[in-house]
Amino acid sequence: MLKAGDTALSIPEAILLGVVEGLTEFLPISSTGHLTVTQDLLGLTDTDAAKEAADAYAIAIQAGAIVAVVGIYRRRISTSLLAIAGRGPDPVAGRRLLAATIVAFVPAAIAGFLLGDTIKEHLFGLWPVIGAWLVGGVVILLWPPSANRAGRPLEIITWRDGIIIGVVQMLALWPGVSRSLVVILACLAVGLSIAASVEFAFLLGLVTLGAATLYETLDKGSVIVDQFGVSAPIVGFVAAFVSAAAAVVWMVDYVQRRGLAIFGWYRIAVAVIVAVLALTVL
Fold it and tell me: What one-character DSSP code corresponds to residue 9?
């Protein structure tokens, strides 16, 4: 337990972690991987208690990114919710989207519940993240750059598409893979357009990340407060919110014009840089 007024997480560190979370959560470059490396560089995982709190904090501040996407996609979300009651401009499309989102959420939720502790024990480290970054970057660069630019819009997504996407999303339980990346590629594979794929990745992320954030906050909230206090996590939440909003708006416009290649090169570059640091400094 920290003494009154003391904290293992400074305000600048909280802002840095919040910005890293917000910028990377919905981009196909893995927020978990970036946060894992950043926490190691800041020395927030030097003890078992600090590592437990840091891992929980990394998930808890996802709430800032979630709120940002809720604000940006509030109309799409409200349309799907209204569709439950048969209301809205297109209730059939709204119900299809809602059904696809729910069935896509279930596989990863079950796998995460059953394997969560095992994943944290064996895969939350630099080398598993580096490997995932590298493989993901190669996959992006090998993916046809013009694939599905004229694919189906999000209004035509089906629950069968949702099942396939949900199964593929389980790959993102490996830190560094990127939930956003595997969902976007799965959406492209079932025939959605690049714009629809990115948007569905955001919407599915609201459910998946929302559930994970709620669970981790309820389960480890006291640990986070004991290690990091209250002010720093709140600042981290705000930083994640602001940076996530900017990242989402930028990505939607960019990928429709330029595709995903930049993220492939980025993943490979950051994997090499972190590997060199791990061998020489960390």
Answer: S
Phi-psi region of 47 (alpha: psi -120 to 50; beta: other; left: phi over 0): beta
| pTM (2 d.p.) | 0.86
Q: Any idea which residue has 């600048």 for tokens?
A: 12
Please give the DSSP secondary-structure letter assigned to residue 193.
-
The three-state (H, E, C) secondary structure of 131-190, written as one string: HHHHHHHHHHHHCCCCCCCCCECHHHCCHHHHHHHHHHHHHHHCCCCCHHHHHHHHHHHC
pLDDT 10s per residue in the chain (282 long)?
A: 344 344 578 889 999 999 999 999 999 999 988 998 898 888 887 777 777 778 778 878 889 999 999 999 888 888 777 776 667 677 788 888 889 999 999 999 999 889 888 887 888 788 999 999 999 999 999 988 665 567 898 889 999 999 999 999 999 999 999 999 999 999 999 999 988 999 999 999 999 988 888 888 888 888 888 878 888 889 999 999 999 999 999 998 898 888 899 999 999 999 999 999 889 875
Helices and strands in the chain, H and E counts: 12, 0
